[in-house]
Amino acid sequence: MKLRSLLFVPGDRAERFAKAAASGADAIILDLEDSVVAAKKDAARAAIGDFLDTAPDGVARWVRVNPLDSDFIADDLAIAARADGVMLPKSVSGDSVRDLAARIGGACPPILPVASETAAAVFGLGGYGEVSGLLGGLTWGAEDLPAAIGAASAREADGSYTPPYEVVRALTLFGAHAAGVAAIETVYPDFRDLAGLSRYAARGARDGFAGMMAIHPAQVAAINAAFTPSQEDVAMARRIVAAFEADPGAGALQLDGRMIDAPHLKQARALIARAG
C-alpha cells in the first residue's frame, strides 16, 4: 500500500469526505479521536460507516480510533474493522498493537500506531518489530507529548523541533525501519505555508521517511512531490542496478567517477520500488 500522503478528515464532517478522497492523497484518515467532541462521536461513526459503504474511489480509507483506554474505543471497533487501515493514537508499544488487533478480531486491517504521544511510548519505539505483521507503518506526533510531560512547546521560535523532540522523531524513524515498515512523518501545522511544508517534507524524504500526514487538502500535492522519486533519481538508481548486474562478482564499482558498493545498490533498489 503506497502511503506518501495521509490526509486527516474530521469524522463528523461528512461533507468533506469526498473532497478529501479527491485531493490526490494516497490515504484519508477519517478521524474519531481529537477532532470529534464526545457528543458527536456517535454521529461521526455513522457518517464514516456510510462513507465506507460507498464505492471505492482509489484512495485508501483509514480510521483513527480513540485510545485503547478511552470510553469510546469499544464503539469504534466495528467501524475500524471495515476500514483499509486503522490509526491507533496513544500507542505505548507493540503490546498496544496486539491489544487493538485482538479487540478487532478476524482479518484486522493494517495498524498505524502514533507511537510517541506519552513518555512511556518513547521507550517502546524499538519494539514494534515484534508485531510487524500487524503494522501498516509507524508515525509520531509533536503535539501530545509536550502536553503529557508539561513542556511549553516542542518547537523553537523558527518552527524547528527542540532537541528532545528531534530525538523522538529519530527514534520513530529508526523504530519503523527496524520493524521493516514505512516511517510516516508527522504533520506540518501551518497549512498556508506551502514553501515551508515543501522544505519540511523534503527533509523527511531525505532522512528516510516514506510519507507524511496532512491536515489540509492544499498540502497533499507538495507532500506527494516530496515523497515521489524524481525521474533523474530513478534513472540513476537503474544505472546503479544495471552496473552491478553487469558485473555480479564485484563488491564495488566506479560510476561517473565515484565509488558505489552494496549500500548504494540497496538504496537504488529501494528507490526503484518506491517509484513503482
- Per DSSP, what share of the residues sits in E-state strands of 2 or more residues? 5-15%
- Give the distance, in angstroms, between the N- and C-terminal Cα atoms: 11 Å
Largest sheet: 8 strands, parallel
- Give the fraction of residues assigned to helices: 40-55%
The strands making up the biggest β-sheet line up spatially as 5-4-3-2-1-8-7-6
Please tell me how large the radius of gyration is. Answer: 20 Å
Determine the number of helices (DSSP H or I, runs of at least 4 residues): 11
How many β-strand runs?
10
Uncertain residue segments: none
| Helix/strand class | alpha/beta
- N-to-C SSE string, H for helix and E for strand: EHEHEHEHEHEHHEHEHHEEH
Query: Quick check: average pLDDT?
Result: 94
> What characteristic shape results from the CA principal axes?
globular
What attributes does this structure have?
276 residues; alpha/beta; 8-stranded parallel β-sheet; two-stranded antiparallel sheet; 11 helices; globular
Molecular structure report:
- This protein is of the alpha/beta class and 276 residues long.
- It is built from eleven helices and ten strands.
- The chain has helices at 17-21, 41-53, 73-82, 94-104, 119-122, 144-149, 163-179, 194-207, 220-226, 231-246, 262-275; strands at residues 5-10, 27-31, 60-64, 85-88, 111-113, 138-139, 183-185, 211-214, 252-255, 258-261.
- It has an eight-stranded parallel sheet with strand order 5-4-3-2-1-8-7-6.
- α2 packs parallel to α3 (73-82), α8 (194-207) runs parallel beside α9 and α10 (231-246) crosses α11 (262-275).
- The radius of gyration is 20 Å and the shape is globular.
- The mean pLDDT is 94.
